[in-house]
Design goal:
Length: 735
């Protein structure tokens, strides 16, 4: 059985620990100035970008001629420290990019490094890990990055399958291809967050612009394609300096050209269950102009009757760079998908129909990057539909339309040596409607939602102090302030201390408050259940108190270990209820729950050609029946090459867990569970590289040992199956 901690003792202990973290972080920030008085060693801050100006995460940066290296975070930022004398040159390298050496001056506030893309022949020989790794920014916030190479190695055609081996992430699904709705038919959960329905505590976006079901306020994974994209960023816990109105986030970063010339990829595969998948992507830069485009399609009959699914999307982006500092871009993505509910095996009457999603996501962005100041302004307009067809009984069809519009403004300035100020403004407008075409004698209905607007400016500051002992300490603090068109305003402060040693050891402690407002879902439920009236207007935002301490270290050459201990306390969870549990039908904020966990990630190089990665998450919670929060889960993967042969293998394992959605009804209990399982997958391939192109033939075998497992009782996942495919890379950057 999973360990469960009783609410009262755990709550007191956790609140005490959270306040200790808060006080320690804020005290370090306050005491930073006196510490600086005895600082003697050097500190070098900077950012690594590609030719398009996009941040390069996971780049290794080291002083020349020698010194311990560091790795850039998700924003491309890095901090190097050491004993005097200060270096005059640094070396920077990253998979898929050509190595670079850059002259530096630690006396300057910041250093900007531009990496050029590597030649295609170089890139096909690279060993890519299953997970690019966890990066930590100056505010102590952790992010896991999954690159497009890892998505290919996992054989993933959608977001759930692409994240199924990410530490701290749990998934659910019915079918091999496609997600049925936004609940247990296809969803991702991060450290126990995202389980409530309607609504969700997880934000999903494409290039930072929100994409989700605006009426029912939960992610729609099929509107977040992974084929042809550049990377997936998983942000664990509230991070007010990056996103708002959620407790965790997943962002899809689209592909863009990184250097002069044109390149592209064509991939096609097919196999078990009449599954077929293909995608084509192209990216190029010529002078000040750049373009990117991709198209993908996948379909499957499924591993049993009515387990079919279909995914399709097309993406286009065009950019223009006026000079070395200013650029502009515009992009559009259209997706059209469908998935069926196969029902409980052996009981076809339990099938709940078919779910179709469509969406068009557009955005435009102006960005600037100077030596000391960088920033951008993005506007977006995303519209879509979620149609639930052929439901049980007399429910018929539910046709939902949503619209998300808004803007994102970001600025960051290195105003003095070792310090920076960052800030921005988010404006979001959410609207939509739903039509209920029921079967007679049931009556039809329609819901037209009120437009909800959220405005949230945010600001943060950090400063790095170099100490005589080889340490550099970066305290930081900031706040995001919310104004809502219907609900009371709120605030999300955050503070952290990050300590880095020249030996490569990095320590962090952080506190952040998350805010998550009720969405259109409470307005829609009130329209469907007239007895609830306008009680939704009295709701408050849900909040989370998040505390985390962690360490990253390299005990030996080729070894990297990251350890994090976190505590989350969710308050003001909104629910609705009826007498006798409440005096009259109403929406209300009641209680909450807490989650405490340990997360470990390991990367180990085995020579120049092989790498082992591993992740382990263990967590306990006060809400015993919290779904999709197994007390322990983990994944191990191996990737490597031998000559022209390449192998990627991984195992995903987790303990038993409660499943289905955490209902918004007062007193609702979640008794359904699924047993523990471990699944092994392998992907051998053979590569023919040649100048300017490559060809790879691969076989992807899922569930190698034919394990029986499920994410919902009565919904078995496929046994052993295989897909055979070919991938062709063409074009090469201009040298």
């Amino acid at each position: 059985m999973t360990p469960v901690i009783r609410h009262s003792a755990f709550s007191i202990e956790m609140k005490t620990t959270l306040w200790i973290v808060r006080v320690a972080a804020l005290a370090a920030l306050t005491l930073g100035l006196p510490v600086h008085a005895w600082a003697q060693d050097w500190v070098l801050r900077g950012v690594v970008v590609d030719a398009s100006g996009a941040a390069v995460a996971g780049a290794r940066v080291r002083p020349v001629p020698d010194g311990r290296s560091t790795t850039t975070d998700a924003d491309g930022a890095f901090v190097l420290t050491g004993r005097a004398p200060a270096p005059r040159e640094i070396a920077v390298d990253r998979e898929r990019f050509s190595p670079a050496r850059v002259d530096v001056d630690p006396a300057l506030p910041a250093t900007r490094v531009v990496l050029a893309i590597a030649g295609l022949d170089e890139r096909v020989r690279v060993v890519a890990p299953l997970i690019d790794g966890t990066s930590v920014d100056a505010f102590g916030a952790a992010r896991t990055i999954v690159s497009s190479a890892q998505v290919d190695d996992l054989g993933a055609v959608d977001l759930a399958s692409a994240l199924r081996r990410t530490p701290g992430v749990t998934i659910t699904r019915f079918n091999p291809v496609g997600s049925f709705g936004g609940g247990d038919g296809g969803a991702v959960f991060i450290r126990g967050m995202g389980t409530s329905r309607p609504g969700s505590e997880i934000a999903t976006s494409i290039d930072g612009a929100p994409v989700y079901m605006g009426v029912w306020t939960h992610p729609l994974l099929d509107l977040l394609p992974v084929a042809g994209m550049d990377q997936i960023t998983v942000l664990k816990g509230p991070q007010p300096q990056t996103f708002g109105n959620a407790f965790a986030a997943v962002d899809i970063v689209t592909r863009r050209p990184r250097d002069e010339g044109f390149e592209g990829t064509f991939r096609v595969s097919g196999g078990a269950f009449a599954t077929f998948a293909e995608h084509v992507s192209l990216a190029g830069r010529r002078g000040p102009w750049d373009v990117s485009a991709s198209q993908a399609f996948a379909r499957s009959d499924g591993h049993r009757e009515a387990a079919d699914g279909r995914l399709a999307h097309a993406f286009g982006r065009v950019g223009y760079r006026w000079n070395a500092n200013w650029s502009a871009s515009a992009q559009v993505l259209h997706a059209d998908n469908a998935a069926s509910d196969p029902g409980v095996i052996g009981f076809p009457a339990t099938r709940t129909g078919r779910y179709e999603t469509r969406g068009t996501m557009t955005s435009a962005r102006v960005a600037h990057a100077h030596d000391r100041v960088t920033g951008s302004l993005q506007v977006y307009a995303n519209r879509g539909a979620g149609d639930w067809l052929n439901q049980l009984d007399l429910e018929g069809d539910t046709l939902t339309r949503f619209a998300l519009t808004g803007a994102r403004w970001r600025e960051s300035a290195a105003l003095w040596q070792g310090g920076s100020v960052s800030g921005g403004l988010d404006v979001d407008r959410i609207s939509g409607n739903a039509t209920f075409d029921r079967i007679a004698p049931a009556q039809d209905a329609r819901f037209d939602g009120e437009a909800l607007t959220i405005v949230s400016p945010h600001v943060g500051m950090d400063h790095t102090f170099a100490l005589s002992s080889g340490w550099a300490i970066t305290p930081s603090a900031g706040v995001r302030v919310y104004t809502h068109s219907e609900f009371d305003g709120d605030a999300a402060p955050h503070a952290a201390v990050v300590a880095r040693h020249s030996s490569g050891l990095s320590l962090r402690a952080s506190y952040a408050r998350g805010v998550s407002y009720p969405g259109q879902n409470v307005v829609a439920l009130s329209a469907l259940i007239p007895a609830l009236g306008s009680t939704w207007r009295d709701l408050r935002a849900e909040t989370m108190e998040h505390g985390e301490v962690g360490a990253t270290f390299a005990p030996a050459a080729g070894t990297s270990i990251d350890v994090a201990v976190y505590q989350d306390h969710v308050n003001n969870r909104y629910v609705f209820g009826f007498p006798p549990r409440v005096s009259f039908p109403m929406f209300t904020n009641v209680g909450g729950y807490a989650v405490r966990g340990l997360e470990v990630g390991v990367r180990q190089r085995l020579g120049a050609a092989w790498q082992v990665t591993g992740g382990l998450t263990t967590q306990a919670r006060t809400l015993e029946t919290l779904p999709y929060a197994p007390w322990i889960s983990g994944a191990v993967g191996v990737t490597g090459t031998r000559g022209r042969w390449r192998l990627s293998a991984d195992v995903q394992a987790q303990a038993w867990m409660y499943v289905l959605a955490q209902s918004r009804t007062i007193g609702a209990l979640n008794a359904e569970t699924v047993p523990a399982f471990a699944v092994v997958n392998v992907r051998p391939s053979y590569v023919w590289p040649s100048r300017g192109r490559y060809t790879e033939v691969f076989v992807a075998i899922d569930n190698l040992f034919d394990t029986d497992y499920a994410y919902r009782p009565g919904y078995p996942m496929p046994g052993i199956s295989a897909q055979v495919g070919i991938s062709i890379g063409f074009g090469a950057p201009t040298q």
